[in-house]
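Issue 218. Parser rejects a valid record. Input:
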Amino acid sequence: MEWISLLVLLAVLVQLMVSGSGRRAAADRQARQLAAVERKLNLIMDHLGIREPEPGAPARVLEELMAGRKLQAIKVYRDATQVGLKDAKDAVELLARRYGLE
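Output the parser choked on:
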C-alpha cells in the first residue's frame, strides 16, 4: 500500500514539473516574439523618421512645437511640470533641437 501512495505522489510531482516547465517555455517564447516585434517596430520608426516622445515631455508640448507655437509650448510645459520660465524655455528648446523643430 505504501508503494502505491509513493507512486501516486511521484506521478503528481512529475506532472507538476512538466506543467511548470511548459508554462515557462510559453512565457519565454512570448518574450522572444515581443522582442522581435519591438525590433521591427523600431526599424520602421527609424525608416519613417518617427521618434518616440520624451517620457518627461507632455505630448501637447510636442504638438505645439510641431505647429510652430514655441511660446505656447513653453506655457504648456510650465503648466504640466510646474517649473520656472527659464527651465521651461530651456527644456522646450532642447526638445525642439532633438526633434529638428527649430
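Fixed in the parser; the record now loads. Residues 59-98 form one domain.
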